[in-house]
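Try this one yourself first.
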């Protein structure tokens, strides 16, 4: 289900405190981030994910016209630490941009080619693309 509000209602989650203690919080955050990024992405952007049986994974791949492939890992917490699978998948796919969207507000480098970024800032970055 793509609408986190409906999921929360069906699960009887009525406020943030209930959500924070519920096991669905990670998947809910991931769905919320994906929906917002897709809404902000330029027209004709193709969205997918990548997972292998060996553990390589990327939560969201955006193939953006004239801007190439972007890899996005989504983390609910205030630590923007991608797992090994994100790095393995990125090595396989060689995206032009690599981001970890997290619940914090600051943008900073994680590695030489991966940045931590807030949902708001990445949404604004996508909206600004031509």
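Now uncover the answer:
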């Amino acid at each position: 289900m793509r609408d986190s509000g409906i999921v929360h209602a069906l699960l009887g989650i009525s406020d943030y405190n209930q959500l924070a203690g519920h096991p669905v919080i990670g998947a809910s955050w991931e769905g919320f981030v994906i929906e917002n990024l897709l809404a902000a992405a330029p027209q004709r952007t193709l969205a997918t994910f990548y997972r292998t049986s060996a553990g390589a994974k990327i939560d969201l791949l955006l193939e953006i016209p004239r801007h190439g492939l972007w890899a996005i890992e989504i983390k609910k917490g205030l630590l923007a630490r991608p797992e090994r699978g994100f790095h393995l998948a990125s090595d396989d796919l060689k995206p032009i941009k690599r981001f970890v969207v997290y619940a914090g507000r600051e943008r900073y480098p994680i590695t030489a080619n991966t940045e931590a970024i807030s949902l708001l800032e990445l949404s604004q970055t996508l909206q600004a693309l031509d």
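Discussion: The chain has five helices and six strands. The chain has one domain: 4-128.
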